[in-house]
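pipeline/complex-builder :: batch 7 item 3
reading input block
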Amino acid sequence: METFEFHYGQLFETLTKCLPATEMPTIDRAVDYARNKHKEQKRKDGSPYIIHPLAVAKIVAEMGLDMDAILGALLHDCIEDTDASHEEIERIFGQTVAELVEGVTKLTRANFSSTEQAQMENLRKMFMAMSKDIRVVLIKIADRLHNMRTMQYQTPAKQISKCRETMDIYAPLAHRLGMQKIKWELEDIALRYLEPEQYNGIMAFLSSHKAQGEAFMHTIQDAITQRLDSVNIHHTAYGRIKHVYSIHRKMQLQGKTLDELYDVYAFRVIVDTIPDCYNVLGHIHDLFNLVPGRFKDYISTPKPNMYQSLHTTVIGKQGIPFEVQIRTWEMHEIAEYGVAAHWKYKQGVGNGNEKDFEWVRRLLESQQDTDAEDYVQSLKIDMFDDEVFVFTPKGRIVSLPAGSTPIDFAYAIHSGVGNAMIGAKVNNRITTIDAPLKNGDVVEVLTSKNAKGPSRDWLTICKSNQARTKIKQWFKKEKREENVAHGRASFEAEMRRIGLPLSLTIDPELGPQLLKKLAFDNWEDMYAAIGYGGLTAVKAVGRIRDDINRAVKNLQNDKQPAPLRNISDTPGKPNRHAVNGIIVEDIESCMIKFAKCCTPVPGDDIIGFITKGFGVSIHRDDCPNTFNRNEPIQAARWVRVRWDNQESQPFDTTLELECRTRDGLLLDVATTMTTNRIRTKELNGKDLPGGKSVFTVRFEVKDVAELESIRNKLMAIPDVLSSRRGQN
Ligand code: MN
């Protein structure tokens, strides 16, 4: 049984390191309040309940959170489990603390982890809270961590369900928030209850190799320290055994037994500056033999969760490969505590409110109407979507699409800021406004009352739709004359490109008809629309092209002028009308649909089948369903079709991937799709007998080249065995 005194002592010791002594009376007030409220309650092991909030507050303090969060942690179960009220807590400890406790209470109440649906609902609420104040989520993670640490007192059924929930929700969340240390601990404890045999096997192996492992780690550590001392690089180096869950995962992924799995050791070198990181890397590669293909530079390209380090794998004289991670102290703090470390550094400026987590908001907006399974899917995709988190000079976090520039940042703040922008400072240094931003950058926009406004090439520099829309709006409003001239020029160029006569647009009869097709009252308005980017010249000309061609034909018939052959896209053949990007030979215009069995995309050889009542259905030439095309009765219904090269609409297509079943595979597939900017419309997995599974991915591509490119990338994922177009 554990005592109040022990846990209070532990908390006090932690707090003296991070809080000024003047705050201690308030802490004591909260401890007394909570202790009094939880008075009669006991933990499952018979300890007084108060040890739990004390332990959670200690974890929260170790994360580096602020005073309000520590108070919130101390009081986190008061509303749920005692007669304490929001009003009372607000009166004694202030509004912020009361809101934090309220937020945690809501999450606790949503905590009925039985079915998938219930968990997802829970998760959704969690994110809701998160988008309001991230500290609520951090306290909740700390709460879960302490409950996991004391899991042995729960019933076996509860152990399993809590551990599953931890693996499904809390560990991924900790990962997304960059809190590696907590993520590892959560995963290791969960594995212990979910896969006790594997867990114990690994633990037994590690302890039987303990002496050997420690000797090995000492040797390597000494070698590193000796070398770095000799060149006067101030550093801390240490070896560690990788966490149990990651060893378990590696065994599963690589199908290896423990004896075959050598790289369970990892070394860390922590230095003062970034140049030192690269210097150390050089010395490591000089001391040991490099394992090719394992070097990763997360300093120049941080992970989406802000993680930075250099990773390399080397082999020493002992023949045992091991990983070395090299980072600065600041990177180390961020790697261990993630978003909470940012708290620590930016304390006093960031308030963790409102817009800090745009991705959460967007996720919620797009996911309100879908069921739980879809939700998990899109959540997983979103979690790994490329995003960059930067700070305003006041410490507010702004999330932008990866590759965003100071221009995107300026428009994310306010369109007025973007329009008055004359330059930018990143991390206090003047930079160009098109330089891509990195996670954690502090961005300051330099503005001037005399700024001339955005320039047109900003439209191609910026990465976010928000910036693009706002820049277009500015041009629309401010630059009418310029837009008209600009738009007219691109319209005329496009007309010339495809060989249409400009004279007809001012024809008294045809002119108004064309404008109607384009949905504009006059030509000037249409030019302006093209000029500011609301309409592309290609689209505009596309809409009136057929009418002009018809008029040209009529003119030819009436007056027999010089032939205008170049209008037609296939010389010598009548100009066919394309429907859905398909031209059917011998049929002027008909309904087109794409066969579900083989989902053809531009570039594929195709053939059409005249269906009864649904127009022409387009199959790939090699589709098995075209087997009867040479049978006399059917032959007449098969028609020749071709792609119309003008179209650039996206096409739906389907790939089936046969895979060796493993954890995270679905996620890898989803990540590959997202990072390659492919719009996924459906992603399903199905287990097959014999440890295999099949994933069906439905997505959009513009042509077969893009399809093959993403197919190659999917095939490069480990454990993807084969791929096949179409479905069934
Ligand atoms: Mn609790």
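note: The pocket of manganese (II) ion is lined by residues 52, 76-77, 143 (CB under 6 Å).
queue -> next item
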